[in-house]
Amino acid sequence: MLFGRKNREKERAREPIEIPAGLCDLHCHILAGVDDGAPDDEHMLDLITYEYECGVRHLCFTPHYNPALFEPKPEKIAESFETAKKFCAESFPDMTLYLGNEVFMRPDTVERLRDRSCKPLGDSRVVLTEFHPTTTYSDMRMYVVKLISAGKLPLLAHIERYDKLNDPQDIMELKSLGVKFQINTEAFESPKKKLIARLVEEGLIDAVADDRHSRHRGEPNLAETYEYVAKRFGNHAAEALFIRRPLNILNTL
């Protein structure tokens, strides 16, 4: 286990907790007017400011790509992204913005990635991958193998939500294939909190994000969750989950 060793609990309790300005948020819905997140520029800029105040300095916009519900127009995505970049250049020059999609898995997903209807995170080949909560494990495995065969690396979004992803052996099998795992900040309070804690302790989680849609949807925030993780699992674990591993994902070519 990389984190969570019982013989380090007292040492962790004494570690000073400092929330660094440098957090990386790989999953949010605050790009204006493109999905069920920020409805307009005013809300988007308010939420960017909120993320900055929480210590986020690397922010990846991930509007939904699910043609049954959301299929944002590329022109609107580009327009909102330019507005966000201009705002940050003027107000938060030390914040770096990235663009991708949260891609709902469908039979045509690989083709849609190839024709750029949807895209991986930033300039990486990592795809923020979403399934329906009731998707079977065998279907999850089938889809991630298709992505990997196409040269992409799946980052499974909010794995605490998937009803059929409970068996540690299944999780280890996906990990052995190269799949990465993201949890939301609320995962530590979810019905799967014991499983999530075990996965964190064993070093199997790659990123924590808040999946923010609004001021009130995406709680607790990254700073609060960083502090919780640092107190429970240690500063090294928090730095890995909120900074080092997410940045490595964005740099996976």
Short description, anyone?
This protein has 253 residues and is α/β, with parallel strands linked by helices.
Explain what this protein looks like in three dimensions.
This protein has helices spanning 9-14, 41-53, 74-91, 109-114, 137-149, 168-177, 193-201, 222-233, 235-250; strands at 23-25, 56-61, 64-65, 96-99, 102-104, 126-130, 153-156, 180-184, 207-209. With 253 residues, the chain is an alpha/beta fold. The protein has one domain: TIM Barrel (Alpha-Beta Barrel), CATH 3.20.20. The longest helix has 18 residues, at 74-91. A six-stranded parallel sheet has the order 3-5-6-7-8-9. Strands 1-2-4 form a three-stranded parallel sheet.
Keywords:
253 residues; alpha/beta; TIM Barrel; 6-stranded parallel β-sheet; 3-stranded parallel β-sheet; 14% strand
Number of domains: 1
Structural class: alpha/beta
Q: Radius of gyration from the CA trace?
A: 18 Å
Helix content: 40-55%
What is the H/E order? HEHEEHEEHEHEHEHEHH
CATH architecture: Alpha-Beta Barrel
Amount of beta strand: 5-15%
Strand order of the biggest β-sheet: 3-5-6-7-8-9
Q: Please give the number of β-strands.
A: 9
Low-confidence stretches: 1-8
The coarse overall form would be globular
Q: CATH homologous superfamily, by name? A: Metal-dependent hydrolases
Count of discrete alpha- or pi-helical segments spanning 4 or more residues: 9
CATH class: Alpha Beta
Provide the CATH topology. Answer: TIM Barrel
Instruction: Describe the main β-sheet briefly.
Output: 6 strands, parallel
pLDDT averaged residue by residue: 92
